[in-house]
Amino acid sequence: MNVKTWKTWLGLGGLLLIVSVIIVAFAFTSIPHSGGDNAGYVSLAHGLLTEGAYLDVFDPQRMKHTKYPPVFPALLAMMIGLGARTWGTLKLAAAVPTVIAVLGTYVWAGRRLGAWTGFAIALILSFSSAVIYYSHWVLSDALFLALTMLALAAFVMAEAADFAGAEACSESDRARDSKAGRYTCWLVIGIAAAGFAYFTRSAGLPMVFSLFAWLAINGRRRSLVISGIGLGIPMLAWWLRGRGDGVAQYSEEFWMINPYDPSQGTIDVIGLLPRIVENASVYVLQHGPAGIVGAGAGSLLLPIGLAMAITALVGWVLSVRERVGVSEIFFPMYSGLILVWPVVWAGDRFLLPLYPLVFFYGAVAIRGLNRWLSPAVTSLVSALVLLVLVLPAAENWLDTNRESGACELVAAERGPWACYGARVGYFLQAANWSSDGLPDSVSVLTRKPRHFYLLSGHSSRTFPFDVDPESHLRLADAVGARYVLLDQWDGQAARYVGAAVNARPGAFCFVRGFGQPRDGGAQLLGILPPELRESPSRGGGSVDGVQGCPESFINPNSSGRPYLPSLRIPLLESLD
Question: Which candidate, 147, 57, 44, 58, places its Cα nearest to that of 94?
Fold first, then answer.
């Protein structure tokens, strides 16, 4: 590159860095997420830091964890070890990678289509609704996106160095060695990023396979063997780890119609076809466009979704006809992966690694119009597409900022969980009281076991999604759980726990209530030992036919501390 080109690259990159930081910072919120994965990652990190083991420390049986790869929990563990104690601080593990993902997209797309086109593609990505949303939660999605784009950027840089080396036949040995060294350096960076992407999310497997295929196509047998060994050994070790006892594997849930309701049954290979059709429909017409311009775009979602899908497919075909790089292999492989997953898993979070590629291949398709249109008209079409995507996305970003700001004000007055309503609040009160209101080392069946663990320190397991009381009692006996929380976080506890208690009230006892049921309150119930079930137990009053629990169900030395909502995570405070 000449000096002028370098100045253009650095200038656009610096501008993009500033814009991306502003976008992420203004959309940032310090309140916690209600999803269990956030708490799950923190609990895994806590286990790594305090016990040096990758365990489900929140679970009564403390099984080895085999579902989520360890890179993101390890990052959180390092942050916790350095003093992070709040949700807001831990969210930097998503915010910073989001900015890195935007810059990685700029480098990758810019090397392929030019700095200005790369800048436009990265700009659209930075404003995309899904990218902004996942930039401020304790989830691995932003890190996975960043590693994916770093890998693609490194591979395209390796291709450029390899091409330059091939053209350097007339140069000195020193010059050729320098270009070969740059190729090796970028290839190693790409291989490392691909490996870390896989060990961040299992969905990174297509990137690893794409790397192997790319090396094989280009006859890089030595690089293929080295990368195969370097990535294959740890991947094999992770796979072997998952063959024993542990939490459910994605492979086990894959064939279920609904992994969240196993009673719906499973499908066979033939059943994959309607699943693919349904997933394609919801991704193209709903999640895909909404993840770019926001769900509030309404009538724009259908035309944007169809246009993006068609142009991306056309652009991919045009690109494959010219060259086959890692991205040309990764695009169909990753798309195929999310199309065969259970439909209930569908969401914009799984589209994050595809958005940069969709924008890129869309730009390739538009550039292909130069065969029939003048460059001026093609440039005008490109500008219009940029405006159509960025303007509603920017409006959605502003709306997100207003919503986050309003919620922050409520959280400052009533606690970080206040925006989720009273139902969630009573769950938190129950967990907080349980921290020293219950005897030490007890387990509780709950709807949100990982959140309950972070807030109370007591191990927890999700209650069975079954109305049969015997299912609940068998699980409680198997894991040693003495309590079950009948909350109203969502409707599942009322549906399953409520039905089980109503069917066999004599197997349960009442410990404590939090709020009134009509207001979304929760009730902490004891699970009587087998010899006391179906017979009245000691204690006072009753609630809907459930008797009071024996005194042994409550910690006699409880401090009775009040519920004081805080952004600090109670489990991490114990580290101080």
Answer: 147
